[in-house]
Design a protein that fits this description.
- It is a single chain.
- The protein is built from 17 helices and 21 strands.
- The radius of gyration is 61 Å and the shape is elongated.
- The protein folds into 5 domains: about 70 residues; about 160 residues, GAF domain (Beta-Lactamase), CATH 3.30.450; about 110 residues, Beta-Lactamase (2-Layer Sandwich), CATH 3.30.450; about 110 residues, Beta-Lactamase (2-Layer Sandwich); about 110 residues, PAS domain (Beta-Lactamase).
- The chain has about 625 residues and is an alpha+beta fold.
- A 6-stranded antiparallel beta sheet has the order 2-1-6-5-4-3.
- Helix 1 runs antiparallel to helix 2 and helix 1 packs parallel to helix 6.
């Protein structure tokens, strides 16, 4: 019985131990299964993570590939187009990339956008101030990282949709993207300044963009913005360099081809043009690296040393103060030149230099001096000198003219019309004179001028002449030189009175008075002389003395006239035969009269009948001096 009991007891213990072992095995299996399950879940996570890593690697690879393509672009437009193409190929059905300048679109590129839609977008571009609003505080609620997403259901509330082109992708089941959704990524330049934007539309997967989507777009946008700014700087630099080359070519052409002498200098001449060599009668080698003082006399006309004045002028020009002044230059051959010099500071590379322009004004100065002399002559002339417009108005009147018209200045005259300065009866003559000047170029005649100071009208001799314009085709003005004839008219009147009185005296005196020319013909004879020859004085005028004397006496008379040519004045006696045949003996006191050139003009003779005196004295009648 005890053996049996031991056996049962041992069996019971073995069964209990087996039960515990089974429990342990169950626990182990549960743990194993749990571990297997945990290992299976981890593999799934790892697989998902691997897939995500693969997608990220793919996105990064595409991003790098797109970045490489963008970096290879050589113009801003090429950059924008490669950006649009790259984003389109990354999963967006339509893309537009725009570049701003003061918020206005200046350049654009498109991917997947029809020509019709592009034309619509260009025709409906928003004003710059409205575009700027899309990046301001009002749109902060639509920011996703540094980008913007405006859902379709609020789009019309925040902006006008007139210029919006909806997405063209057909909506499919499971899409979260609405054709009127708006997603755009700013291009940020230096200082976070918005220089453009990338608008994305029609996602291929039909899903709205997530923060991760914008993350990759923003990485790309930063790279693009940097490239755009770089290309803009390069394009600007290229434009500047091209402009500089063009400008340099133009300036070189002006420099070399100018009719003025050009010099580039500091303290010494560093360059010059062909005209400079011609002006100073020397070669370029004679000028470059030489001082301007070498081409100047020791002293300038104002008495200052050329070295001091040149140094002062050059330093002022280098300091930015432009200079323009007269300078007396000396050519290589020693000849002096009157010149006008202009100095201006210029930047040549890193050097501050002076551009000098030298113009030969010798002829201008001579012309100016001549003009001043002429002006002085006109002003100091005692004659009335005026400039008259082709329409007949006085444009200028000298001092003598003002005095003659009784004016202090031309402005005091009631009118500048010449007709108003003439007596009414002379206006018609002046108008005719103007027509003659226009037709023939000059006119001279007598006109009477009014005296506005209350004096009497002045008789004048007026000479008018046409002054042509620079082309010589039109009359630019009419010159008038007017001489006051008042004194001459008064003298003529007095002379006429004196002449009348003298004539009356000569005509009525008992002495015979006559005048013969160099050919012995009577030019004048008073009644007493005509009676002496047995004629009236009208009959005697024009007759020759030879008609009243024999040949020997006439030869004697001609010899006496020869003495008159030498200025001799003497008395002589000759026989004559009167017109009635009577013979008389006359005594002549002959006095020569000369013209302005000193030639004998006539002989004035006082004649006395001495026949009775000579007969009573018993003298003979041959002529005697």
């Amino acid at each position: 019985m005890s053996e049996t009991q031991i056996t049962i007891s041992e069996l019971h213990e073995e069964l209990e131990a087996l039960r515990h072992r089974l429990l342990e095995l169950e626990e182990i299996e549960v743990m194993r299964v749990s571990e297997e399950l945990e290992r299976f879940d981890s593999l799934q996570v790892l697989d998902e993570y691997a897939k995500q890593l693969e997608e990220s690697r793919d996105k990064i690879t595409r991003l790098l590939r797109a970045g490489t393509a963008v970096q290879e672009a050589r113009t801003v437009q090429e950059v924008l187009q490669k950006v649009a193409d790259s984003i389109g190929e990354a999963g967006w059905g339509s893309v537009s990339v725009s570049l701003f300048e003061d918020w206005d679109v200046v350049q654009s590129a498109y991917y997947g956008v029809s020509d019709k839609d592009i034309e619509f977008l260009r025709a409906h571009r928003r004003p710059p101030e409205e575009r700027a609003r899309f990046y301001g505080p009002e749109f902060q609620r639509f920011r996703v990282s540094r980008s913007y997403f405006v859902p379709a259901d609020v789009l019309a509330q925040v902006m006008s949709t007139d210029g919006v082109v909806p997405g063209r992708r057909e909506v499919q089941a499971g899409d979260t993207w609405d054709p009127m959704d708006l997603a755009y990524v700013p291009l940020y330049g230096n200082g976070e300044r918005v220089i453009g934007t990338i608008n994305c539309d029609d996602p291929v997967d039909g899903q709205r963009p997530t923060a991760e989507t914008f993350f990759y777009l923003e990485l790309f946008a930063d790279l693009v913005a940097h490239k755009v700014e770089t290309e803009l700087l390069l394009e600007r630099q290229r434009r500047i360099e091209e402009a500089l080359r063009e400008s340099e070519g133009k300036y070189r052409a002006v420099f070399d081809g100018s009719s003025d002498a050009f010099f580039l200098m500091d303290e010494l001449f560093r360059d010059c043009n062909k005209r400079a060599c011609e002006l100073w009668h020397c070669s370029r080698e004679d000028i470059v690296s030489h001082s301007p003082v070498e081409f100047s006399p020791e002293y300038q006309p104002d008495g200052r040393l050329s070295t001091e004045v040149a140094r002062e002028r050059i330093h002022k020009a280098l300091a930015g103060e432009s200079q323009r002044f007269y300078w007396l230059h000396r050519r290589k051959d020693g000849g002096l030149l009157d010149c006008e010099v202009s100095l201006a500071g210029v930047q040549v590379g890193r050097e501050k230099m002076v551009l000098a322009v030298v113009r030969d004004i010798s002829q201008d100065r001579r012309a100016e001096e001549e003009r001043k002399r002429l002006a002085s002559l006109v002003e100091k002339s005692s004659d009335y000198i005026a400039l008259i417009t082709p329409e007949g108005e006085i444009a200028y009147l000298n001092d003598a003219g003002l005095r003659l018209a009784g004016l202090q200045s031309l402005d005091e005259a009631p009118s500048r019309r010449v007709e108003e300065h003439l007596l009414p009866p002379d206006i018609g003559a002046f108008q005719q004179a103007m027509e003659v000047v226009r037709a023939e170029g000059h006119w001279e005649g007598e006109l009477r001028l009014r005296h506005f100071g209350g004096g009497d009208a002045r008789p004048t001799l007026m000479h008018m002449f046409a002054i042509p314009d620079a082309d010589g085709k039109q009359i630019s003005a009419i010159g008038a030189v007017v001489r006051d004839l008042t004194a001459i008219k008064q003298a003529e009147a007095a002379s006429r009175q004196s002449e009348d009185a003298l004539r009356w005296l000569v005509e009525n005196m008992g002495d015979a008075i006559g005048m013969t020319d160099v050919n012995e013909r009577f030019m004048y004879a008073n009644p007493a002389l005509a009676s002496l020859f047995g004629l009236s004085h009208q009959e005697l005028i024009g007759r020759s003395l030879g008609d009243f004397v024999d040949a020997k006496t006439y030869e004697f008379i001609r010899a006496q006239t020869g003495l008159r040519r030498k200025g001799a004045r003497n008395r002589y006696t000759i026989p004559i035969r009167r017109a009635d045949g009577q013979h008389r003996l006359i005594e002549i006191l002959a006095t020569p009269q000369f013209d302005r050139e000193g030639k004998l003009r006539c002989v004035v003779a006082a004649v006395q009948d001495v026949t009775d005196l000579e007969l009573s004295a018993g003298t003979s009648t041959p002529p005697k001096a």
